[in-house]
Design goal:
heterotrimer; A: 102 residues; mainly alpha; Helix Hairpins; 3 helices; elongated; B: 494 residues; three-stranded mixed beta sheet; 20 helices; disordered C terminus
Chain lengths: 102, 494, 322
């Protein structure tokens, strides 16, 4: 059990936690927060997979992928929050009623 | 395969001009936008022509080939998709020039966002790298959302919020799959992946996550519920782009992965599962469309239904059975003609809303008398959706039915026929309202010229697409992953 | 008692999971967000442990810092709107959870599948490490991550800046006609203002250094841009009015400049070459120019994203102050 495998599995666990709350929480702000946990979990897994070489060298490609992922995540979060605030301004609600996702 | 630089222009032209349009204002911006639209369409058609004449075009970005760099690849499938996006994108752009209120903030923001989205779409179609596909998919999704929200209504905000929440789930699922594949094989290039992939738990998990995520984005039943509110509350040109191009792009990604990255795997059972979902989409979407009160909701549910047909390629194509390759051509042709017809239908609905102020079907009586050309265009689009000859929808559906016959999967054939009947019901319902005599004191309304003509162009193309089948199949056949029996029209006969 | 490496990692992992749980289950949204930011910092430490210092910087600045600011800004705005309602803070019971049975099942199945997939595929270490590291001299930079981001896979980076731009355009589209929160009278703090006065020049210098040093050490445009964005956020919070509306051409040029420079750089080298194929001799300089332009743009974009969420985006007519 190497260092990186521990973090990879931790990442999966965090993503799982995030997924559960993403699906079950009705408050959209909490959904977005949970979504960020899912994202961070994926990134933990990806980055850990860069550190598996026997000679200790690091594969820089997953690092680049995760950097892209972080930027995309902040973009999506900002858009979601702006939409949520506008939605809240119009309706006073923070949930989407009659919600029935998977 | 030739390194070509014309391949990159359908992506770069809208991106560069999109940002330049953002920097300018007023009339200059509109002229630049028109130039952007025309240029993007022309460069896309140019790639189509080049692929048809020679062979797959390749562009190694940065000069680094696979696996280190990103390779862009335009084979037959990508060329067809580029041609589609060029045609539909151009018409939507021309329509939008007169759709928005001149000088309004909505117009100012629409153009840069739309051009970036269009560039992202083209980038998606020619990408040969699974992570690059993720980034272009994000460009498309995060471009579509603000365009929906531009409508500014409460419904639009709510629908775009729901769409974004689900789209995010889909993206992250796809990204997980990419991570798993890279961890296992160390390549991100599609072709290399296709050559090195082996059946493995990691691989099957990756496939489940990638395709699962894309199914959410393609609104395949049962993950379709975000689509009708989103596509119906968006501004009309945006609805056209969404139902026509964005949803098609997600389907394209599944097809690209299935046939290019995973062909070495035995995925028959997954194909059947997807086929079942497709059947659900066809029937449920069609049924719901019949029940809708509003025209745009009806058209949106029609999208849900028609998407189901596309996904039937996965159970219907069986490499062991000769002749089932017709499912591939049928599905792609269906996708192309649906995109054209559906965007036409939404643009027409937009004209109705502009002229009448609403889209309640029961109150659009007699619209045919007052807006004859728009009604005619909508009827032509309906012909395509119902699958009547000589439209592209007929050819596509016929090919899929033949594939069902050839592979002995009659159930799918029955479902497709039922879907056609349902489509007939909902289209007829609308046309019946349009064709009735209007009340005597109904105002004499004028239909906006530019918008009407653009709608007509799309309608005529969709309906006559059947005649262009040999050309389309010729392009599609370049580096096809599937052995198509022949491209002669005889293949259409049972 | 000295902790050996593995125990430290185990402890950190447990802490990460514990913090994630705490953040997701906390009754008070404010607490959730703060724990989330703390979580982000610990993730940054995890990444140092996995030899990813560039990402540690990016995560701390963007993932934890900017994202946390976005959340807090949005929360504040929502709470102010709800001031008429019973409680000031938004608590969990107000908007509870749907029946969790199927969610639990689905999550367990998916997480289990993922864990098994990871474990089964972990030992195949056929990554691109050798390929990338062996060709790094051709890339013009020494830091392998910078080489990948700005040379080997620069096309991805270009598109992701496009994604950032779309987010900004989206925020402008959504925020139309929102009234600006009046920060001037109530929230101005002398301490904060002085702090900002002293800090701003230092932040700009550090950002410039981060871009410069990204050539061979951890650093680069995104990290530097995030720093500038953070400075922008603090400036806004201290009551300083920044011109953020698209009516001003300068704003549009700064926001879109990085993307445009990147595109043009890729196009201008295209004579006889591929898109974004920098000539070996000038690769380093081209990369630096692109990075500088993007740093400024990213900083501005992140600041606008924050102001959009925090409702500080004013229409031009409202910008005259006391």
């Amino acid at each position: 059990m190497s260092t990186s495998l521990i973090y990879a599995l931790t990442g999966i666990a965090i993503a799982g936690l995030g997924l559960f709350h993403y699906l079950s929480q009705r408050n959209i702000l909490r959904k977005v927060l949970a979504g960020n946990f899912i994202g961070t979990g994926i990134f933990l897994f990806l980055v850990s997979s860069a550190d598996r070489q026997a000679d200790g060298s690091i594969d820089p490609v997953p690092h680049a992928l995760v950097l892209t992922g972080i930027v995309v995540a902040v973009s999506a979060t900002a858009l979601l929050l702006a939409l949520l605030c506008r939605y809240h301004d119009e309706t006073g609600s923070l949930t989407l009623d009659e919600e029935d996702d998977e | 395969m030739t390194q070509s630089s014309i391949l990159i222009w359908p992506v770069l032209w809208p991106l560069v001009l999109g940002i330049v349009v953002f920097l300018f204002r007023g009339r200059t911006a509109l002229w630049l936008s028109l130039a952007a639209a025309v240029g993007t369409a022309l460069t896309s058609f140019n790639v189509c022509r080049a692929v048809h004449q020679s062979s797959t075009l390749v562009h190694e970005v940065g000069g680094w080939g696979a696996p280190l760099g990103i390779v862009l690849r335009a084979d037959g499938l990508a060329a067809v998709m580029l041609g589609l996006s060029g045609l539909v994108g151009l018409v939507i752009s021309v329509y939008s020039l007169t759709y928005f209120k001149s000088g309004s903030r909505k117009e100012q923001l629409f153009w840069p966002i739309w051009l970036l989205l269009w560039g992202g779409l083209n980038g998606l179609f020619i990408s040969g790298d699974i992570f690059n596909l993720y980034v272009t998919l994000e460009l498309v999704s995060l471009g579509a959302i603000p365009l929906i929200a531009l409508a500014g209504t409460r419904d639009a905000i709510k629908a775009s919020l729901r769409y974004l929440l689900l789209a995010l789930l889909g993206s992250m699922s796809y990204l997980f799959g990419v991570g798993l594949l890279y961890m296992r094989f160390g390549v991100l290039d599609l072709m290399m992946l296709g050559n090195t992939i082996t059946p493995d738990l990691t691989v099957y998990a990756a496939i489940a996550f990638m395709i699962g995520g894309l199914i959410i984005k393609a609104a395949l039943f049962p993950m379709h519920f975000w689509l009708p509110p989103a596509h119906s509350s968006a501004p009309a040109p945006v609805s056209a782009a969404l139902s026509g191009l964005v949803v098609t792009a997600s389907f394209y990604m599944v097809a690209r992965l299935w046939f290019y990255a995973f062909p070495a795997l035995e995925l028959a059972k997954l194909g059947q599962l997807i086929g079942l979902l497709g059947c659900g989409a066809i029937l449920w979407g069609g049924w719901q469309a019949i029940r809708q009160e509003r025209l745009k909701m009806l058209v949106a549910y029609s999208t849900v239904s028609q998407i189901g047909y596309l996904f039937l390629v996965f159970p219907l194509y069986n490499k062991a059975i000769e002749g089932s390759g017709i499912a591939w051509s049928g599905s792609i042709l269906f996708a192309v003609s649906h995109a054209i017809a559906k965007s036409c239908a939404f643009l027409a609905a937009g004209i109705f809303i502009k002229v009448y102020g609403h889209d309640r079907i029961s109150e659009l009586r007699g619209a045919g008398r007052q807006l004859p050309m728009v009604t005619f265009a909508f009827a032509l689009a309906g012909v395509n959706l119902m699958g009547l000859p000589p439209s592209g929808g007929f050819v596509g559906k016929w090919m899929l039915l033949k594939a069902a016959f050839v592979t002995g999967q009659w159930g799918y054939g029955v479902v497709m026929v039922c879907g056609g009947l349902l489509a007939f019901c909902y289209i007829f319902r609308v046309l019946e309202q349009f064709m009735t005599t209007p009340d005597e004191n109904a105002p004499n309304l004028k239909s906006p010229a530019v918008m009407t003509y653009s709608v007509l162009v799309l309608a005529v193309t969709a309906v006559s697409l059947g005649f262009f089948t040999p050309v389309l199949l010729g392009i599609l056949g370049v580096d096809s992953p599937v052995s198509l029996v022949s491209f002669a029209p005889e293949v259409l006969l049972p | 008692m000295l902790l050996d490496g593995l125990s430290f990692d185990l402890l950190l992992s447990i802490a990460l999971i514990a913090l994630a749980t705490a953040a997701l289950r906390a009754r008070d949204l404010f607490k959730s967000i703060v724990i989330f930011m703390l979580f982000g910092l610990l993730v940054a430490i995890a990444w140092v442990r996995v030899h990813a210092p560039d990402l540690a910087l990016a995560e701390a600045a963007i993932g934890s810092g900017i994202t946390g600011a976005l959340f807090l800004g949005a929360l504040n705005r929502i709470e102010r709107k709800r001031k008429g309602a019973a409680s000031g803070r938004l608590e969990n019971p107000v908007n509870g959870s749907t029946s969790g049975a199927w969610a639990v099942l689905l999550t367990l199945v998916l997480t289990g599948l993922l864990a098994m997939a990871v474990l089964s595929g972990w030992s195949y270490s056929g990554g691109l490490a050798d390929e990338a590291l062996s060709r790094i001299d051709e890339s013009g930079v020494v830091n392998p991550v910078t080489a990948v981001i700005l040379n080997f896979r620069a096309y991805d980076t270009l598109l992701e800046i496009g994604v950032l731009l779309l987010a900004v355009l989206g925020v402008y589209a959504v925020c139309e006609g929102q009234t600006m929160r009046d920060l001037r009278r109530r929230d101005r703090s002398k301490v904060l203002e002085t702090f900002v006065h002293l800090l701003s020049p230092m932040v700009v210098l550090t950002a410039g250094y981060l871009v410069w040093v990204g050539y061979k050490e951890p650093g680069g445009a995104f990290q530097a841009g995030a720093l500038l964005g953070g400075a922008g956020v603090v400036l806004l919070l201290s009551g300083r009015e920044l011109p953020l509306h698209t009516a001003r051409t300068v704003v549009r040029i700064i926001l879109g400049g990085g993307f445009l420079v990147f595109l043009l750089a890729g196009l201008l080298v295209m004579k006889d070459r591929a898109f974004l194929e920098y000539p070996r001799a000038s690769a380093k300089h081209i990369i630096l120019i692109i990075e500088l332009a993007c740093t400024v743009s990213i900083g501005a974009i992140l600041t606008v994203l924050f102001s959009g969420c925090a409702n500080l985006l004013a229409a031009p007519s409202e910008e005259e102050g006391p």
